Amino acid sequence: MPLYDYKCKEHGLFHELASMENAPLPCACPQCGKLSARVIMIPPEVLAMAPGRKKAMEKNEKAIHQPIISSVDSREDDAQRRAHAAAKKGCGCNDHAAHPDRSSLRQKAIYLPDGSKVFPSQRPWMISH
């Protein structure tokens, strides 16, 4: 059985186990016995969330049960949206014209005398296999 939160006007917040079918019903306060309404607790991080992110999460939550329908038009719209986002954002280097052939920049594995291999690169934090 789930644990629900209830709030007594006199004694404040308390928790009680109740079946799901009895979830919307009020519960008696353990101290005074008065019926108290159920409250829905909202985590503080949701209240402090940026409005744009909160709106996006609400939209995703509403659309979670909608079927994904694939059509020629929807795929074309999706491809255009992705191309626009890629052109707008890019990789951030702003140097694609200077390096049209990036295959020459790929690093080769170097095998050491003990049999291990290393990949010399500008990313020393990367671990090789």
TrEMBL record:
Looking at the record, which segments are called Disordered? 73-101
Give the SMART domains listed for this entry.
CxxC_CXXC_SSSS
List the Pfam families hit by this protein, alphabetically. Answer: Zn_ribbon_8
Q: What sequence ranges are listed for the domain Putative regulatory protein FmdB zinc ribbon?
A: 1-41
Concerning InterPro entries, the annotation shows: Regulatory_FmdB_Zinc_ribbon
Q: Which domain of life is it from?
A: Bacteria
User: What is the name attached to this protein's record?
Assistant: Putative regulatory protein FmdB zinc ribbon domain-containing protein
Q: Which organism is it from?
A: Zhongshania aliphaticivorans
